[in-house]
Write a structure and sequence with these properties.
Number of strands: 0
Number of helices: 11
Distance between the termini: 46 Å
CATH superfamily: MetI-like
CATH topology: MetI-like fold
Structural class: mainly alpha
Length: about 270
């Protein structure tokens, strides 16, 4: 029996990966293009990165994006962790079905519907659109991803460790912060990185909820691309790709280290009498 991949499988893999990553590779390459024409290679140069850091409009949009991403991901991580723990610990409580549906709804709801509904809510409560409304909108959809990540980690959590800690005199609160939280911390960090990345990438929801002085970087890029792609856009997009790739790499390293530490602890526990 031939266990190797067939030519069709190899062709599908090559086509799929090329379709996904070749445009990104070309974007990164042309960000170092000497020529101002983004489709004509004129030699290697980093001058467009220097031009980028002299573009005050892009810098202001990048600063707003980073602030929104940091604040929203931090609050979303807090709320998402509480939600994930609650869904795992309390199997039945009044309104659980509704609460679960509200957690998972933003994951499958189109971004246009989410952005429009948030806009209508902000208008109904007479809340001026700006930095605050964009941050609230990003918290709304990103906390759901954190809740899913934390809930999946809590599903395989050994509750006997907590019971042992409370038998030794720890209060439930101290048990959570001293025992539970360190164990699920990699999932919490992964959720923060995921929500941070989603906030950096969001365009549709931010377009509905933004206001004067709260233009995010994706919105700025989109408005400039409509007039034509410039090398500066390639440069800032390359930086965003680098930030996202770094976040994914950090999350992967944290997850692998946690798995390795867990396996090592299990082996030590099995060896000790």
């Amino acid at each position: 029996m031939n266990k190797g991949l067939s030519w069709f499988t190899w062709s599908a893999l090559i086509f799929g990966f090329s379709f996904l990553y070749l445009p990104i590779i070309l974007l990164v390459l042309f960000s170092f293009n000497e020529s101002k024409l983004v489709t004509v290679w004129g030699g290697f140069s980093t001058k467009w990165y220097a031009e980028l850091f002299n573009n005050q409009g892009l810098l202001n949009a990048a600063w707003v994006t980073l602030k929104v991403a940091f604040v929203s991901s931090s609050v979303a991580t807090l709320l998402g962790t509480i939600s994930g723990v609650m869904l795992t610990r309390f199997s039945s409580f009044r309104g659980r079905t509704l609460f679960t549906g509200m957690i998972y709804a933003p994951l499958v709801m189109p971004e246009v519907i989410t952005g429009l509904s948030l806009l209508l809510m902000f208008v109904a409560v007479s809340l001026d659109r700006g930095f605050l409304t964009v941050t609230i909108a990003h918290i709304t959809f990103s906390m759901c991803y954190v809740a899913v990540v934390v809930q999946s980690r809590m599903a395989t959590f050994d509750h006997s460790i907590e019971e042992a800690a409370m038998d030794l005199g720890c209060t439930p609160g101290k048990t959570f912060f001293a025992v539970t939280l360190p164990i699920i911390l990699p999932a919490v960090v992964s959720g923060w990185l995921l929500s941070f990345t989603l906030s950096l990438d969001d365009l549709v929801i931010a377009s509905f909820t933004t206001g004067p002085g709260a233009t995010t970087l994706p919105m700025k890029i989109y408005s400039q691309v409509r007039l034509g792609v410039t090398p500066e856009i390639n440069a800032v997009s390359t930086i965003l790709v680098g930030l996202v790739a770094t976040g994914v790499l950090i999350a992967t390293i944290i997850s692998r280290r946690n798995d390795a530490a867990r396996l090592r602890d299990e082996r030590l526990a099995a060896v000790d009498p």
